[in-house]
Structures are given as C-alpha cells and as structure tokens.
Amino acid sequence: MPDPRWLTTEQAAQLLGVKASTVYAYVSRGQLTRHHGPDRRSSRFERAEVERLAARARRGGRAGALDVVLDTELTLLDPAGRLYFRGRDATVLASQPFEQVAELLWAGPAERPDPPVWAAEPRMLAVARAVQAALPPGTRPADRFRVAVAALPATDPFRYDQRPAAVAATGRGLIAAAVDCLPPRSAPVDDSVAARLWAGCADRPPTPAQLRAFDAALVLSADHELAVSALAARVAASARADPYLAVLAGLAALGGGLHGGSVGAAEALLTELAAGRTVADLVADRLAAGDQVPGFGHAVYTGTDPRAEAVLRLLGRGPDAALGGRFDELVAAVGRHGGPRPNFDLALGALAVTWNLAPGSAEAVFVLGRCAGLLGHTIEEYRHRFRFRPRAVYVGAAPATDG
C-alpha cells in the first residue's frame, strides 16, 4: 500500500494546480525538496511540504475560506480513506483502550511500570458536580462537559504548569471529572472511561461487545488532524491559556453545527427513522429544503470514512436490527447515483439509536473522545510562543474627519 506521506510528481502537480514541469521549477528555486523514490529513479515529494507550498500559493480556499497549514506529529489524514495517530492506523488502535491511545497522543510510545490513574481530585469532582446541579434536567451530556471544563481551572492551583507530563496529568483529571459528573443512569461495570461514560448514557450495563464498540468509538473520536476545534485549542494555547481553557476553546468550536453539532443531527435523523418515519420522507424533506442529509459525505475523504466503517463493523447488523431494516435502505437511498457515503456522524448516531441510549449520547462520545486530541494539540502548541497573529484588511466605512 502506498505510503500516504509521499506524493508522486503527478500527485504533487495536481495538489498544487500546476504542470509537472512547474513542480521541478519549484525544486530548482528551493521551494520544494525532491526525494528519490524506492526505485532510486523516480521522484517523490513529502505531502506536508507540498501542502504548505499549496497553502502559500492560495488566495483563499473554499468559498473564500482561509487555509491554515501547521506541522504536527499527532495525526495524518489520508483523503483516500486512512487515518493515523503518530504513524499508527487509528482503526487498528481502536482495539486498544481509549486511555492508552490518549497517552499515545500526548506523549508518544512510552513504557511505564504502572498505568496512570485516570481520576479527578475530590475538590475537582465536587465543583464539577456542583455546577451540574444548577443545569436543567434535560441538559445534554456535551453541554455538561463544557460547563464542567469551564469550572475546573478554579480548583487547580498548578494549572499553568505547561510541561507535557503536567498537561497529561491535567488531561486525565479533566476527562475523569467531565465523565464522572454526569448524572448516573446505571453503575459502571469497571473504571474505564468507556464504562463510566456508558453509565451516564444507558440505564443498564453494557455487554462486552457493546463496551468494546463504545471504547473504539472514543478512540476514533480522539483526533482528526487540524479540525477547527484543534485550531481553536492551539490558538488559545499559543497565548499561554492553561490546558483547561485551551480545551474549552476547542469544545466551543466543536459545538458548532458544522463540526461536532452535526453528530447530534445524524442521531436525530436515525431517531426519527426508528420512530417510524420512512426513508423516502426523511430524505425527501431534507432535499426539498436544500439541505444535505446528516451523516453522509465528508469534506476531506474522497473515499469512505474509515472511522464510520470501523464503528459500523463493530455494530454488525445492529443498526438494521434496531431500525427494522431501514438503515441499509437509508444508505442506499442517499448513495444512489453516486451520492455520498456514511460518515462518522452517522456511525455514532447508529451506535446511540441501536442501543437506545439517552438523547445526545452520540455527541457525548464524540466530544469526550475529542478532549484527548485537543490536549495533544495543546501540548504540541506549548512548544511555540504566540505564533498566531492574523491580520485584518479593513473594508468598512472610511474614518470620519473633523469638520
């Protein structure tokens, strides 16, 4: 399988929007580095370097959007349909506990005599639970997480310690406090983050297969390259915000309807389907309104979303069993005539609806899992000092003059 870190001359030219001869002109000018291919005769180019050059050449990306390209050692996203955490396939890592993968994102591979403890200090948990008590009973878990994270800095006198090991310790406590302050619906079957989150989402204990899929969903939620939430966390960290506030900045961006909020839309769609709405009605209603069907298509993946495939595979025939055979019908209806394929949002929604979890559980998995990645980006950004200084071009009214 081709290494996604490398591009052929033709692939580099396509990404840059130039001819192959221009790629070699960039090499001669010192703007691009040419490497020998495995056969020592062909040329290949490092994808990250080509993407940086492409970003500098742009004058606004999608519909005038701004592209930010940063070096990172955390996550590699291959648009063809692969995702890697520190060079390891995320769908393979999904067989490991969420805590181990989070530690990998924070510090890289490490041998420890004893696994770290994922628990919140009593004062942290007391404050997190106290602020939860002020929220309305129907508050969704993702909103509860944001409120808890906002309150936690006041309990930690050492929150400005920005060494990687200190931030990792903060991260364990932050995630533990967030999940443990959820109003319990059942008792955790063990002390894993997955089991504790399940207890806040379900009124019954999970089967081993359910807990394994829940853990895998947390792992696959952990990071997705430089998503807007990761950038928000990095901007805060660049200004030396403490880790709690950096994560909170990321969670604020994650709550947008074009980011993590889309998970809730996919869950709502499947909830309607489970309640008896027909596939034709659901799809037709959204198409008639000019909307996309939630849970389908992806802005980056040109093929399948590997995270969706992994979670749906762990669910087996679960979605169709719970939805009376209409899940496959929905996928076929949206995908007809070369239409979009299921994405991770739909897979998380299927997980929640198939197991009759509390409303908002799909987003809860996504947000709690993504806290690990936000902390990884925070640790990485602390190596730099205030490197984000965007400038604005003023296009408003001309300044008023006296007289």
From TrEMBL:
GO molecular-function term, one example from the UniProt record: citrate synthase activity
NCBIfam families according to UniProt: excise
High-level lineage: Bacteria, Bacillati, Actinomycetota, Actinomycetes, Micromonosporales
Organism of derivation: Actinocatenispora thailandica
Gene Ontology cellular-component terms listed: cytosol
Domain Helix-turn-helix: 6-56
Key words of the record: Transferase
Family label: Belongs to the citrate synthase family.
GO biological process terms held by the UniProt record: carbohydrate metabolic process; tricarboxylic acid cycle
Pfam assignment, any one: Citrate_synt
EC code(s) of this entry: 2.3.3.16
InterPro entries with a match to the protein in the record: Citrate_synth-like_lrg_a-sub, Citrate_synth-like_sm_a-sub, Citrate_synthase, Citrate_synthase_AS, Citrate_synthase_sf, DNA-bd_dom_put_sf, HTH_17, SinI_DNA-bd
Associated pathway: Carbohydrate metabolism; tricarboxylic acid cycle
Protein name: citrate synthase (unknown stereospecificity)
Origin: domain of life: Bacteria
